[in-house]
């Protein structure tokens, strides 16, 4: 390639836009197979990039899911094991890490990581541009008391005075467009995190009426009697255990608005994507959702301690590498932080618990994971309900799923022969081999990530009689390695800097 005299090839800017919605199921995007879903902008993004079929949330509830995305550590590591509990003071986000490396970082939208209530504290955390900080408390503080109440009622969507300007999504998008205008000539990392389509699912016309009369097609998932499943699922189902498939799938305002608001969120993201295509065509774009929703499948609603595809198998679309590709191999939110760091040319810290996907983004024949993991501890510290304590650790290799409920019945599914995850084969001897391999991977993963809740109880399951309880468990000391922001930890036995973070524990006789 030739260049004019005195001209040199300009270094390509490193610019990454991270788009996130709340409570978007994978099948709520048209590109994932349901043509009734009107999401033209994300569908186009998938055509221009990579669509992941088997991407999983690290914990299918808002705060913990986001903690994994933005720190690269699992909730059991960063401390956010439930909503309304803050992460540990020594936990750093990718915004903090990139800002320290000279990358301009903006965060606009729902945060849910400060330990406050649903709306947040309204304060910009370290590492992000405070001029663009706009969590949901900031949004509410712009309003009168009457408007605040109105913003929390789904019927507002049907009012004649409802406008897109009233919504959180629109105001987030406006700020994102200003950020792109101001910083489009430099390296940056921008997150735009919508609360939509999460309830109350506010959206203006025509979106509020777009899915009137919609119902899901009948499937085995709506006929699951939950027998042979965990007790917590039967409690979770409640009165729905008596419902017919027709009753579970009947059209209704909540579902219609959820889907309408999802299309509205797509429209708002489309405003950003249009500008990116016109002005920043080389920017990398990542879209995902924190988790899905059951919506009557398995007689369940909302989300909880489950690895069912409706709630844990999230949409993930990445533009910036190969085009019009579909990746079937397992993927995880835990890998997003290291991917973003590598994209910006930053080293991946030892304590991050995922792996960069960048090589796969540029070449989809590359496999990053053979197994990915999902967990659960409880839904929210503020709420007594939602089953309370629900200790779950789960793994999938893309076909098989093993879900261990520490205080309940475990689950095992073959999603190739049982795509709707109705038949729990945890006790099936024909499945013992792969079931036990996934079990061993879960136990190894709990050790490798220093899972606060690890212990023999996860190993000694009724269907694994060869596993025996031990006071020493696996007999290792596993210390934290976070040498970027902390001094190296000291060895308890010597008082000197530890030589090995993982070592056999000295047992006193």
From TrEMBL:
Query: EC number(s) on record?
Result: 3.1.6.1
- The reply on keyword Cell membrane is no
Domain Sulfatase N-terminal: start-end pairs: 16-345
One GO cellular component, as annotated: cytoplasm
Q: State the UniProt keywords alphabetically.
A: Hydrolase, Metal-binding
Q: Which GO terms describe its molecular function?
A: arylsulfatase activity; metal ion binding
Per the UniProt record, the lineage of the source organism begins with: Bacteria, Bacillati, Bacillota, Clostridia, Lachnospirales
Q: Which family does it belong to?
A: Belongs to the sulfatase family.
Pfam short name (any one): Sulfatase
Please report the organism this UniProt entry assigns to the protein: Acetatifactor muris
What is the recorded name of this protein? Answer: Arylsulfatase
Q: Give the start-end ranges of region Disordered.
A: 468-492
Metal-binding as a keyword of this entry, yes or no, is: yes
Tell me which PROSITE patterns the record gives: SULFATASE_1
